[in-house]
TrEMBL record:
It comes from the Bacteria. This is DUF2185 domain-containing protein. The lineage of its organism: Bacteria, Bacillati, Actinomycetota, Actinomycetes, Micrococcales. Residues 14-94 form the Immunity protein Imm33 domain. Pfam families: Imm33.
Amino acid sequence: MPDYIEFIPKAGACTVTKNVLSGQGKVRWMVREPSKGPADNGWIIMSHLDTSEYLQDGSNWDIADFNSVCMIEPALIGIWDFPVGSDLQIVRDDKGIHIVDTPTGREIPQEEHFIPPQFRQQN
């Protein structure tokens, strides 16, 4: 696997748990908060292993380039431009990977997913 792929130009950095970065946990929850600085895109990424206690310990968090986290879980590419306040989760089942709005349980249809400029069809 290449060291780095820029899926999204100038995607910025996100806050992510060490379980995601280490590969121990699969990406499960994604919440977008207001940016805390110019490089911060506001995304907070958590794994399926992360408990409330784990999340409360600041040493279990890191800052990572969003594109690097997309290399771990490509489904994140599709949520990049969702608005602040988004509360999403990845659901894996026998039909694949789905992005679901956590509060409503609504599956986000493919046509609402972000497509990086280099992969958009030209008309």
